[in-house]
TrEMBL record:
<dbReference type="GO" id="GO:0071513">
    <property type="term" value="C:phosphopantothenoylcysteine decarboxylase complex"/>
</dbReference>
<comment type="similarity">
    <text>In the N-terminal section; belongs to the HFCD (homo-oligomeric flavin containing Cys decarboxylase) superfamily.</text>
</comment>
<dbReference type="GO" id="GO:0015941">
    <property type="term" value="P:pantothenate catabolic process"/>
</dbReference>
<feature type="binding site">
    <location>
        <begin position="329"/>
        <end position="332"/>
    </location>
    <ligand>
        <name>CTP</name>
    </ligand>
</feature>
<feature type="binding site">
    <location>
        <position position="300"/>
    </location>
    <ligand>
        <name>CTP</name>
    </ligand>
</feature>
<protein>
    <recommendedName>
        <fullName>Coenzyme A biosynthesis bifunctional protein CoaBC</fullName>
        <ecNumber>4.1.1.36</ecNumber>
        <ecNumber>6.3.2.5</ecNumber>
    </recommendedName>
</protein>
<keyword id="KW-0456">Lyase</keyword>
<keyword id="KW-0210">Decarboxylase</keyword>
<keyword id="KW-0511">Multifunctional enzyme</keyword>
<comment type="function">
    <text>Catalyzes two steps in the biosynthesis of coenzyme A. In the first step cysteine is conjugated to 4'-phosphopantothenate to form 4-phosphopantothenoylcysteine, in the latter compound is decarboxylated to form 4'-phosphopantotheine.</text>
</comment>
<feature type="domain" description="DNA/pantothenate metabolism flavoprotein C-terminal">
    <location>
        <begin position="201"/>
        <end position="427"/>
    </location>
</feature>
<feature type="domain" description="Flavoprotein">
    <location>
        <begin position="5"/>
        <end position="170"/>
    </location>
</feature>
<keyword id="KW-0436">Ligase</keyword>
<keyword id="KW-0460">Magnesium</keyword>
<feature type="region of interest" description="Phosphopantothenoylcysteine decarboxylase">
    <location>
        <begin position="1"/>
        <end position="205"/>
    </location>
</feature>
<comment type="similarity">
    <text>In the C-terminal section; belongs to the PPC synthetase family.</text>
</comment>
<dbReference type="GO" id="GO:0004632">
    <property type="term" value="F:phosphopantothenate--cysteine ligase activity"/>
</dbReference>
Length: 438
């Protein structure tokens, strides 16, 4: 098997030194890496460092080695292009198609997945121009990681910190795993024997909800659940790898957001319902969803009247306060109703998750079958919870129940494999025509 060919672009930010650690992760994993820094990046880390660590020549301008036409060849031949750090200036130039150095030329000619890892001061990351440039890049299919929050240059702290090399590397490997069906990966271009994973969600828009909702009791307490968001994150990551545009409605999770997803953060069940329905229906230029996968653990109940101040215990009164609960809306049932009423496209595939425990009235699967009928979704993924199962674990065991009566047991298996099984079932149910034409 031929080593994957990676172009590592390095922008002119103080975090450029971390790119050397990322380069080492790629080379130790067997990748062939060509480093393309900007001129400004070389003021932070010199050319000899990049050449020594990569074992490849280093150039910044389009006039170097002109006979090899590097400004076209590097992008065409790459299996993946990663830029870390991606500065505000680089994001702007990439978004507007400027090509005044070798790296921006590579970004224009690349026909493989492109992953950008921004790093800049908080004020820059949150500036409307950078926000707009990031959104434009994501709309075009570029995978842009959200930066971490933490210590920046000097005493500043906030969002804008370069994600750790390990996180960038993991996102890159996920994209390499899913790259294989684009123009740059044909056997004519690549003369290698790597299998091409499915890109059967290319051109599709999918919505994935993830994590656990929290219902406030007072300003410091809440009703929550044990969901880690791992299965939802795996579903989003595998959809991205299979070519989809992903809206990731994320409640509270313990795992990083998947690189390249459009993240919509929420907290409560009502917020999650509104965000999912909005993404599923589409607004303005945004197309509606071809599939919605409800992997979030949504609270069934919420306090009827959350206290605006902290509920205090009284030393004189040892009794506990009584909290009145009201039911939250059923988000999946609401989606089914919206589809029936035409607010969501009739072709949208709706997938629910059912975390079940067996009891005296029936087994996990029996409860799941009843819920599948009651919910009216196209697919219901049933898994047993409790006793160290499902929540917070790397593996899962599920049964995927179809509205047509089909059942498929999957697992025990990694949650990524569970995710692929779910998308396999979804792909069988989405219409063959391009959903963007609806």
């Amino acid at each position: 098997m031929t080593a994957p060919r990676v172009v590592l672009g390095v922008g002119g930010g103080i975090a450029a030194y971390k790119a050397a650690l990322l380069l080492r992760l790629f080379t130790e994993g067997g990748a062939s890496v060509r480093v393309v820094p900007t001129e400004a990046a070389l003021r932070f880390v010199g050319e000899p460092t990049w050449a020594a660590l990569s074992g490849q020549p280093v150039a910044t301008g389009v006039w170097d080695d002109v006979h090899e036409v590097p400004h076209v060849r590097l992008g065409r031949e790459a299996d993946l292009v990663v830029v870390a750090p991606a500065t505000a200036d680089l994001l702007g130039r990439a978004a507007h198609g400027l090509a005044d150095d070798l790296l921006t030329n590579v970004l224009l000619t690349a026909r493989c997945p492109v992953l950008l890892a921004p790093a800049m001061h908080t004020e820059m990351w949150q500036h409307p121009a950078v926000v707009a440039n990031t959104a434009l890049l994501r709309e075009r299919g570029i995978h842009v990681l959200d930066p971490d929050s933490g210590r920046l240059t000097g005493a500043d702290t906030g969002p804008g910190r370069l994600p750790e090399p390990e996180r960038i590397h993991a996102a890159a490997l996920a994209l390499l795993d899913g790259a294989g069906d684009g123009p740059s990966s044909s056997s004519a271009d690549h003369d290698d024997d790597r299998a091409a994973p499915a890109r059967d969600l290319a051109g599709r828009h999918v919505v994935v909800s993830s994590g656990g909702t929290r219902e406030p009791l007072d300003p410091v307490r809440f009703l929550g659940n044990a969901s880690s968001g791992r299965q939802g994150a795996a579903l989003a990551a595998r959809a991205l790898a299979r070519g989809a545009r992903v809206t990731y409605v994320r409640a509270h999770t313990e795992v990083p957001d998947p690189a390249g997803a459009h993240v919509v953060p929420v907290s409560t069940a009502l917020q999650l319902r509104d965000a999912v329905l909005t993404a599923a229906a589409g607004q303005g230029a945004q197309t509606g969803a071809d599939a919605v996968v409800m992997a979030a653990a949504v609270a069934d109940f919420r306090p009827a009247a959350p206290s605006e101040t902290k509920i205090k215990k009284s030393e004189a009164d040892e009794s506990a306060p009584v909290v009145e609960l009201v039911r939250n809306p059923d988000v999946l049932a609401g989606l089914v109703e919206a589809r029936r009423e035409g607010r969501v496209a009739s072709t949208t595939v709706l997938v629910g998750f059912a975390a079940e425990t067996g009891d005296a009235t029936g087994s996990v699967l029996e409860h799941g079958r009843l819920k599948a009928v009651r919910k009216g979704a196209d697919l219901l993924v049933v898994n047993e919870v409790g006793g160290g199962r499902a929540f917070g674990t790397a593996d899962n065991t599920v049964v995927i129940i179809g509205a047509d009566g089909t059942e498929r047991a999957v697992g025990p298996a990694p949650k990524e494999s569970i995710a692929d099984a779910v998308w396999d079932a979804v792909v069988m149910r989405v219409p063959a025509e391009n959903p963007g034409d609806r």
